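Pilot study result, target chain (379 residues):
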Amino acid sequence: MVKNKKKIKTIFEKTLTDVENNVYLKNWKINNEDLKMDHKWVIDKRRLEGGVSDGVDIITVNNGILSFTVVPTRGMGIWRGEFKGVYLGWNSPVKRLVHPHYINLETRKGPGYGFNEWALRCGLEDFPGRIANIPAEAVKVKVTSESNVALEVEGVVYEQAFFGPNFKISSTVSTALNGNTIHVTDLLENLKSTTQEMQLLYHCNYGTPFLEEGAHVIAPFKVVVPRDARAAAGVKCFNIYGPPETGFTEQVYFCELKGNNGGQTEVALINRDETKAVSLSFSLKELPCFTLWKNTNSIEEGYVTGLEPATFFPNKKIFERKHNRIINLGPKERYKIELDFSVHLGKEKVLKLKDKIKILMKGIEPKIYAKPDPYYSPT
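Predicted structure:
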């Protein structure tokens, strides 16, 4: 993960939504030609119409070789993407983006949670929470320059209720021209005059072509614990995937990872012949817990795996509180998280990624539990 050390120059900035000041642009687009730049890029904002997607705002960013779609209407999640013609995300039974006003968070009836994003946040007050179904109140795009030109989408989302939570997330999703990485920065603020408990999990979902029979996850695992008896049955091959299997019941593993001296770590999903890989890099100081979700069901039901860095493990809040995995934010206190999504195509690039993670793995022997442990899950 690259930290910004130099002053960033803003080349262009445009506000697309500002609820407080009654600003809203339904459709809007800019590209390199508008700013007289040679390298091709596009930022395209649209409002979807019809069906359950009616009223959903999407912003598609294309840096020349990598494109992705941010959804301000759904908590600044990332719907799907593409890198050099290779699809990023997964094929959910929920085919369209669902506007939050169709979703009852207390039930899975109807369109349920509208779960089909490549990457979404879970939290904040509790898990799975409401943040992924709250529209952003302020959205802007920027074109900036440091060592390279970058395209940015910024959004501000509030989770607020009387006698309830009062959080603000300022999220920036950015990418450098012709780069293979999406950089996410989230700044979480407690707006209350009292301390608030906070949980945040990044549900990063991948299907084919990265997920297939023989695909595998590599990471500097220190501890791997099956969530329940179902996960324990497959713990010997917890990081290896099978083919689509009708009726497959999900398997979930709670993990502790090793980082470098600065606390940075990296996780990768690699396809069978090791010609394609995706990776997540993040700080264990910010996201100390990692969950691996395996759901290799039929293609029709959703053949998918989730790589899930988080501040906690996805158990009931009372259990996580007992084991000191709930963050307490003081009045006006902030919590910053940075996360990189990268794509690696070709054997040479994948090998380089593997070597990088092997350095992190040096000197550790993973402790793999054969059954659930009461420190990690109540099962």
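One observation from the pilot: The longest helix spans residues 347-361. A full batch analysis is planned for the follow-on phase.
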